[in-house]
Specification:
Blueprint (H helix, E strand, L loop, with lengths): L2 H18 L1 E2 L22 H20 L18 H11 L2 E2 L7 H14 L2 H4 L2 H6 L4 E4 L15 E5 L2 E8 L10 E7 L10 E7 L5 E6 L8 E12 L3 E2 L5 H15 L9 H12 L9 H29 L9 H22 L15 H11 L6 H12 L16
Parallel strand pairs: 3-6
Antiparallel strand pairs: 1-2, 4-5, 5-9, 6-7, 7-10, 8-9
Helix pairs in contact: 1-3, 4-7, 8-9, 8-10, 9-10, 10-11, 10-12
């Protein structure tokens, strides 16, 4: 990109941000200053949650209407027609300003919108600009009680009825479903010998009769996840995504975009923020900085975090070169959760009982939500074991696990 072009674009970004947001007053964290909350899944009152989503939508609309809402999207679909480099520069500049939390759009824009655009009919593709503007929010309806990591084993049924499909079944652990207008649904439409065949994907209007969303309360008391039930839900065939019975292709494309989210250098898992809190903790008197074992554990976590950052930069370069996300990016999810686990384990060892019993100390009890969140982080978006299998089999070329021994008669 010519330096003159990027300079003009940078000026445009700066003008928009200065006119519509305030610069972040405190760039570096300080001990004892501000809210000490850490977890993204902490409890939040329903009214505060609605305000959070309302503010996020307002900002996304403002951003989109000014031309910054979908910079790298094709102009034919409502995007800005610019490069990922433009988008990365704007997002970097935006991080210096105090804008509403936009986490409610992560799945909507990182997975749902891209799949709707790639596999949807013109009717479905028309939803994509509205998703990027924040008028609509999307969720991913994949996991089921008996088919989480084994996604191909799902049992939610899609039965053809003329030019419609009738959906019956259940999904679970569906993030932001309670805020969502549309869902990316994967269901079984045929019984086949191969469980990867016979699946069909759809764009589902979440307000369709027969759709019921029930929020799930986590150990942190947060309610970001949901179970979703389908009782004879009817979907027009015009909202099918890709070929009938070939939904696994659609699912894989969506999951590759999900893996890319973890490689985008956006601290999606909160590793950098949590590591910085741990660093500040160790700077306090009597918190273990003079203990060589503690220092070594912190150095290990810090090194892993830096490795993730540099790998993310390399992934950015691959995307700018036009290469699609692939199975190798599964390493980011695994690396992020493993690094975060090391940070949380060390913090728990340092604080001891003060991490789980509120003594009123700043920066102590805030770790309780992270400790409770950590097991779920290793499951959500593909378990650590599944990530290792993907890396071993599809990246390193290692042999697959042998089948279990026969338990037939005489065994």
């Amino acid at each position: 990109m010519p330096s003159s072009e990027i300079a003009v674009f940078e000026q445009e970004c700066s003008a928009f941000l200065q006119d519509n947001a305030r610069p972040v007053a405190q760039r570096s964290a300080q001990w004892g200053v501000g809210d000490d909350a850490l977890s993204s899944y902490a409890a939040i009152e329903p009214e505060a949650d609605r305000v959070r989503v309302r503010d996020a939508k307002r900002w996304k609309a403002l951003e989109f209407d000014a031309g910054f809402g979908w910079l790298s999207g094709p102009m034919s679909a409502g995007g800005g027609g610019l490069t990922p480099e433009h988008e990365r520069l704007y997002l970097s500049m935006r991080s210096e300003y105090d804008v509403p939390a936009l986490g409610v759009f992560v799945i909507s824009l990182g997975m749902v919108a891209s799949t709707f655009l790639a596999f949807g009919s013109p009717e479905v593709q028309a939803l994509v600009p509205q998703l990027h503007r924040g008028d609509l929010i999307g969720c991913q309806l994949f996991s089921e009680p008996g088919a989480g990591s084994d996604l191909a084993g799902l049992t939610t049924r899609a039965e053809r009825d003329g030019d419609q499909w009738v959906i019956t079944g259940q999904k679970v652990w569906t993030s932001v479903a309670h805020h969502s207008d549309w869902g990316l649904l994967l269901a079984r439409s045929e019984s086949t010998s191969s469980k990867h065949d016979g699946l069909t994907a759809f764009a589902l209007d979440m307000r369709t009769p027969g759709v019921e969303v029930r929020p799930l309360e986590m150990m942190t008391r947060g309610r970001e996840f949901n179970e979703v039930f389908f009782d004879g839900v009817r979907i027009s065939d015009t909202r099918r995504l890709g070929e009938a019975g070939k939904g696994w292709r659609t699912a894989i494309a969506t999951l590759m975009n999900e893996r890319a989210l973890g490689a985008a250098g956006n601290d999606l898992f909160g590793v950098e923020r949590t590591l910085e809190r741990l660093r500040l903790t160790l700077q306090q008197p009597g918190m273990g900085a003079d203990n060589p074992v503690v220092r070594q554990a912190f150095a290990r976590a810090y090194s892993m975090a830096q490795t993730i950052r540099y790998q993310a930069m390399a992934a950015d370069a691959r995307r700018e070169a036009g290469l699609p996300p692939g199975p190798a990016e599964s390493v980011f999810k695994l690396a992020n959760t493993e690094t975060l686990r090391r940070i949380v384990d060390l913090a728990g060892a340092i604080w001891g009982p003060r991490a789980i019993a509120d003594t009123g100390e700043w920066g102590a009890y805030s770790w309780a939500d992270m400790i409770l969140t950590m097991p779920g982080m290793r499951i959500a978006g593909g378990t650590d074991e599944v990530m290792r299998n993907i890396l071993g089999e599809r990246v390193l070329g290692l042999p697959k696990d042998p089948p279990p021994p026969s338990t037939g008669a005489g065994a």
